[in-house]
Amino acid sequence: MLSKVEKQNALLASKIGFEFEFFSKKDLKETASSLSRLLGKKIRIEDKAHSAFNPTDNEFKLEPDNSGGSGMIEMVTGALEFPEAKVLLGKMLGWIQKNGSTNDRCSIHVNVSFSGDKLGTELNISNLDIGKFVLNFDEDKVYDAFPNRKDSVYAKSIKFVTPLSGMVQRTPDKINWKDFQFVKEKYYGVNFSKAAKGYLEFRYLGGADYEKKYPKVLSMIEHFIISLYEVLVNPEYNQKDVEALDKILKLHLPIIQSYKSYDDFKKHFKDIKILVDLSTAKNIIDSYWTVIRDSILKILNETGMQKGMINYDSDQGRIQIKDADLPKCFLLESVDIVDCKISGNVVKSDIFNSDINSSSLFECNLFGSTKVQGSKLEDCYVSRNVNVNDSYVFGERGVFSGSMKGGIFRKGRATKHADLNDKVEIIEIEKID
Question: What is the pLDDT of residues 290-326, one digit of tens each?
Fold first, then answer.
């Protein structure tokens, strides 16, 4: 636990970069000019989102970012020392209140690093023990301040740890985080991929009217800084960490105990039916168990599945899931999903007649009477009769033939069968036969 003096030193040694997403009542040029005068910084206008220019502490960039809707823009700053960042935050939020607006898809991304000169020693974020951070970070504090972000597909919880193998058991008095898997893609509350560049990106903050919440935003930024600093200066695992990890492993114990044989599996998962080539014959499943067990137990590890059917198609070497509730898909990849309820991350899978909520889908094919709510679809094929509501559709390789109500069609192709109602915001669409 850090003392008040240590916390204050951490704040003063931190460097903060911002990414503000918002709408402006002014055009891009007028917005840049107005903000430049207010903030006392040069502001460079870019033609597209995620441009190659890297902002500095003296020159920021302003660029179009239609991920929140047509006309949404993003201002990206360089890394600023904490006292300056705090002042700039107040000015920026005040400007948005007077001259712009935000909606549910707008965010503030906060990039945190530390100045070795201020601390007298270098804190190497690239060597951050992600496991230690995940176990120690108080995420509930963030969601209490911004409850609307708790189930956001753009800032999902980092509190998901799963063993890489169904056989992982903790060695007494030793924690090896190479045995565990953590969140990797950027649409989580913390983007850990940035650690290699010497900072962490916190994505929790945002939502409609975030510009009116300066005290809460500032308090959360201080929470991010102190949480990161504490793990960097105290990297050793303590008893609390061990207990937290053991609690996680306890949840996975039935999976570990099911690894040896199909008989062991049946003892622990009586409501999950295993089939091979649609056969339930025990002798066939027993003969395939060593072939299919890793795939099956990985699915249970990473989805929270407790009942339903899992079939192994030996001709295709592919797993098929039916009649299951998959409430926390850490990563479900290259499977067929039929008549299921899904929430989480699904990649390169075929989905039939399922209900999808608060999910991130990448290169998936959606068929039948599938319903999608509040999700992100990237480079997906969406067939006729699929209903997509209040979601974000994008990707040049995607093809859309279903119906869509609300949300944003950012970029993609749509066939003549596509039905997009007048509440869908269409930014870029290519009509195909």
Answer: 999 999 998 998 888 999 999 999 999 999 999 999 9
- Are 78 and 142 found together in one domain? yes
Model confidence, pTM: 0.85
Token pair belonging to 291: 């072939």
Name 277's Cβ contacts closer than 8 Å, sequence gap at least 6.
284, 311, 312, 313, 314, 315
Whether residue 393 lies inside any domain: the answer is yes
Tell me: do 221 and 268 sit in the same domain: no
Asked if 402 and 385 touch (Cβ cutoff 8 Å), the reply is yes
My answer on whether 314 and 381 are in the same domain is yes
Residues 232 and 284 in one domain: no
Per-residue burial over 248-273, b = 16 or more CB atoms within 10 Å of its CB, e = otherwise: bbeebeebbebbeebebbeeebeebe
Q: How many CB atoms lie within 10 A of CB 97?
A: 14
Q: Say which DSSP state 70 is in.
A: T
pLDDT tens track for 123-159 = 889 989 888 899 899 999 999 999 989 877 778 888 8
Q: Please check whether residue 323 lies inside any domain of the structure.
A: yes
3-state SS class at 23: strand
> Which residues, 6 or more positions from 329, have their beta carbon under 8 angstroms from its beta carbon?
302, 303, 342, 343, 344, 345, 346, 359
Is the same domain home to 63 and 189? Answer: yes
Length of the chain: 433
Q: For residue 198, what are its two tokens?
A: 């010497």
Residue 209, class by beta-carbon neighbours within 10 Å (0-12 exposed, 13-18 middle, 19+ buried)?
A: middle
Place of tokens 């990161």: 228
Residues in Cβ contact with 78 at an 8 Å cutoff, skipping those fewer than 6 apart: 17, 54, 55, 56, 57, 58, 59, 60
Residue type, 317: G
Per the structure, the complete domain to which residue 405 belongs is given by 264-431
